[in-house]
Amino acid sequence: MVSIKRPRISRLSSPDNSGKNNIFYEKDIDLLLSIQQKPTGISYVYLEPFMEIEKYYPVIKKFSDAGIHQHLYTNGTLATEETLKALGEAGLDELRFKLGASNCSDKVIKIIAIAKKYIENVGIETPMTPEFFETFFNKKQAILETKLDFINCAELHLNANNIDNYYGENMYISRHGYISPIWSRELTLKFMKIAVEESWDLAVHDCSNYTKFARGLNFGGNEGRWVGSSNYTCAFFSIPYEVFLPILRDDNFKFLYEEELPAGYKPGELVF
Fold first, then answer.
1. 47-59 pLDDT per residue, tens
2. What is the pLDDT of residues 208-237, one digit of tens each?
């Protein structure tokens, strides 16, 4: 998988950013494809693409002509029928809407329906939060009537820029990697249960922290790295241990099992 961060001065990088110092232009694509092995897929990430969507068309067309699957992320607020049609004509395979970014805006819901006219695979990918969960089900009928193909329920993982917004929430760390509020995965499972019970005609994907861990292993395997190699890592330079105090102090939260603290580290034994 290759991530393209900006088509105007297209920076193509591998998942571990090993090519982070290499800057490529649209004119270099033919050269890259003639020399290197084709990527299995390309994702357009980081920036809101519809701010300058016209710069994406020729890049998408080149990779489409090479038979490479491409998907693009957007919050959908700037998309129009004209630009969606142009993306479809360029050969974009998949469009993923960050519907939570607009709080399930009615305008964006209508745009999703329009996108389905021109792009083969259209869906939602957004972090699972209580706000998104509530708003989605308030507008569920309108969203499902767009005939979208999938919903990717991403487990909300935090970084230094947003973790303070969730101060006091019960959090956990997965495999010394992503840090998340425990309710994000719980809401995803509840969401999926409702989808099954109501027989929604689409795919709902559980994009949990464990899924991201498995994805990292898959990347490593596809790139021929050593067994167990992965780009899955923590978003913090050092683990912010203090964010786990609320869950440790929560008498209502029951751990599946607990390990006894070693001598000298038990309550009352530590002296600061």
1. 899 999 999 999 9
2. 999 999 999 988 888 888 888 888 888 999
Q: φ and ψ at 43, to 5 degrees?
A: -120, 140
- pTM of the model as a whole: 0.86
Distance separating alpha carbons of residues 181 and 172, to the nearest angstrom: 7
Count of domains observed in the chain: 1
DSSP-derived secondary structure for 206-261 = EE-HHHHHHHHHHHHHHTT--TT------SSSS--GGGGHHHHH-TT---S--PPP
Domain housing 230: 2-249
Q: Which residue is it, tokens 């861990």? A: 213
69 in a domain, yes or no?
yes
Token pair recorded at residue 47: 């920036």
Residues 6+ apart with CB under 8 A from 199: none
CA-CA distance, 246 to 231, in Å (whole number)? Answer: 29
Rounded to the nearest integer, the mean pLDDT of the chain is 90
In a domain, 54, yes or no: yes
Q: What is the CATH number of the domain that holds 153?
A: 3.80.30.10
Cα distances (angstroms) measured from residue 173 to each of 32, 177, 181, 182, 193: 39, 6, 9, 9, 24
